[in-house]
Design brief:
Layout: H1 3-28, E1 40-49, E2 54-65, E3 68-74, E4 82-93, E5 96-107, H2 115-124, E6 127-134, E7 137-142, E8 147-149
Antiparallel strand pairs: 1-2, 2-3, 3-4, 4-5, 5-6, 6-7, 7-8
Length: 154
């Protein structure tokens, strides 16, 4: 066996592995993706608990501001409830867009609201949304099971 060609193959494999690892590292260090389309519209959220027969209805306004989606959620049944926050897109993978949520303002007179569970989930983990089309109708499906018609109603 000749050692010179064997060493050359070893160096070639090492060089290929280094180049491949550098190119995969580039995708990790890229700037966060920005929302491609401007969002500006309203939607209504509902939370229902069949066991306790409780329901909560909220009005949400979403708008793109400085490459982030700003939300204002209010309750039509309680004008003291206001929640404002910012969604920033951090990644896109396999058709899913990953977001992080930053609360800006939260005010309510009630305790133990069902929306608190959603806010807790949004604050403590990155979550994904995936755009899909069903019979030509654009929808957005969320990690929590939410399904939105898109574009939002103005």
């Amino acid at each position: 066996m000749r050692w010179k060609p064997a060493l050359n193959v070893k160096w070639l494999l090492s060089l290929i592995l280094i180049v491949v690892s550098l190119f995969t590292g580039v995708t990790i260090w890229q700037k966060p993706a920005m929302p491609e389309a401007n969002v500006d519209g309203f939607l209504q959220l509902g939370f229902y608990d069949l066991m306790s027969r409780r329901k909560e209805i909220y009005d949400s306004h979403m708008q793109t501001v400085n490459h982030a989606i700003m939300t204002t959620i209010t309750s039509p049944n309680d004008n003291r409830f206001v929640m404002k926050g910012k969604f920033a897109e951090i990644n896109e993978q396999n058709g899913k867009q990953f977001f992080t949520y930053t609360p800006i303002y939260y005010s309510t007179a009630q305790k133990g609201l069902m929306i608190d569970g959603l806010v807790d989930m949004l604050m403590h983990m990155d979550f994904w949304m995936q755009p899909v089309k069903v019979d030509g109708q654009p929808l957005v499906v969320g990690q929590s099971g939410a399904i939105f018609l898109y574009p939002l109603h103005e």
